[in-house]
Amino acid sequence: MRAFTYERASSVEAAASAASNNANAKFIAGGTNLLDLMKLEIETPTHLIDVNGLGLDTIEATSDGGLRIGAMVRNTDLAAHATVRRDYGLLSRALVAGASGQLRNKATTAGNLLQRTRCPYFYDTNQPCNKRQPGSGCSAIGGFSRQHAIVGVSEACIATHPSDMAIAMRALDAEVKTVKADNKRRSIPIADFYRLPGDTPHIETVLEPGEFITAVVLPAPVGGKHIYRKVRDRASYAFALISVGAVVQPDGTGKVAIGGVAHKPWRVEAAEADLPKGARAASNAILAGAKPTEQNRFKVALVERTLGAVLSEARG
Ligand SMILES: Cc1cc2nc3c(=O)[nH]c(=O)nc-3n(C[C@H](O)[C@H](O)[C@H](O)COP(=O)(O)OP(=O)(O)OC[C@H]3O[C@@H](n4cnc5c(N)ncnc54)[C@H](O)[C@@H]3O)c2cc1C
Ligand code: SF4
Q1: Number of Cβ within a 10 Å radius of residue 46
Q2: Whose CA is nearest to atom 37 of ligand 1?
Q3: From atom 40 of ligand 1, which residue's Cα is the shortest distance away?
């Protein structure tokens, strides 16, 4: 690990200003992803800004019936919160499908959204990887690509986004609240938060350098049946091959986001009109234009079957 300096931010404004003073600074929350990446020298910040003591660990009702989740709320606390379990069951289920109990005790809402891909070549510093080292090439294209993306891919990168929580946030139409380095605040719909890889796979979100997440806000509950189904190589402590996060209404309409298939939580709102027609019609529309590799072609059928199981469970 490279040497770095460290400070505890005393306020949100101080955190944003500390980041604006040092282009090589990074915020540290639970540290469960960042510290691993620093040990491998994939992330090499020269300064860490600890944002754990800023009081951003509360969950509060909003005036329009929604829920404001502080950026530092731990994944365990969010999954167990009574309102989340009652009104946003999809979020609770997605969270407990991720990582392990110990990791969820440390992992935060903001850190979870910003965790990096689990592409094995991204972690292997002996291999070319455009995301780790722009312009070096993509080892997964033509290499081991079983876990990789099938939609929204580019010639520079076919990595997937790893977060389970973000799939639920996408289906629930969350908004990400931030403060920029110049202390201006903004609200980013999660639909616009993540980027596809294009020819700049190292830029994963629309956040500006030093922009700090303060909270995630969920709109008022929409009812319906909340289901998160994650398919993986072993029953726990593994990232998704694919996952389906869905809110299904009694008339068969609903909202569906898919994990493990793209560089971001994958949702095609126009395809949701096909949900009452069944899983085949909906998954064909959700995965339109898919470009799987030989090794991950199975994901196309896996999405259809998993969505079918989710719709069937929703119908009881
Ligand atoms: C063995 C293992 C298994 C795992 N399995 C799963 C799984 O199955 N599913 C899953 O979804 N996840 C899984 N994870 C990932 C885990 O959920 C993430 O590591 C965790 O959510 C990251 O949160 P953190 O608070 O520790 O983030 P950190 O590591 O502290 O930070 C991550 C990134 O977010 C940035 N950041 C943090 N807070 C802010 C903020 N407020 N504003 C702006 N930037 C910020 C940091 O600078 C850093 O770049 C696993 C992790 C491990 C190690
Ligand atoms: S898929 Fe993306 S993260 Fe993986 S090796 Fe290629 S460029 Fe790197």
Answers
A1: 13
A2: 111
A3: 213
Query: Which ligand places an atom closest to the C-alpha of 179?
Result: 1
Mutate to test the pocket of ligand 2, among 40, 42, 119 (most ligand atoms within 8 A of CB): 119
pLDDT digits (tens, 9 = 90+) for 220-238: 999 999 999 999 999 888 9
Residue range 181-207, pLDDT digits in tens: 888 999 999 999 999 999 999 999 999
**Residue owning the nearest CA to atom 6 of ligand 2:** 138
Does residue 140 have its Cβ closer than 6 Å to ligand 2?
Answer: yes
Looking up tokens 């398919």 gives 231
CA dist., res. 18 & res. 12, Å (int) = 10
Instruction: Give the residue ranges of DSSP H helices in the chain.
Output: 12-21, 34-39, 75-80, 82-87, 89-96, 101-106, 109-113, 120-123, 165-171, 190-193, 279-286, 298-315
Angstrom distances, CA of residue 259 to CA of 111, 155, 159, 266: 18, 21, 12, 6
Q: Is 59 close to ligand 2, i.e. is its CB under 6 Å away?
A: no
Residue 52: both structure tokens together: 């754990």
CA of 48 to the centre of ligand 2 (A): 26
Which ligand is closest in space to the CA of residue 196?
2
Q: How far is it, in rounded angstroms, from Cα 44 to Cα 60?
A: 35
- In the reported structure, the alpha carbon of residue 222 is separated from the centroid of ligand 2 by a whole-number distance in angstroms of 37
Q: Is the CB of 26 under 6 A from ligand 1?
A: yes
Model's pTM, two decimal places? 0.98
The pLDDT > 70 percentage for the chain reads 100
- For residue 207, give the DSSP letter: P
Asked if pLDDT for residue 208 goes beyond 90, the answer is: yes
pLDDT tens-digit series, residues 251-293: 999 999 999 999 999 999 999 999 999 999 999 999 999 999 9
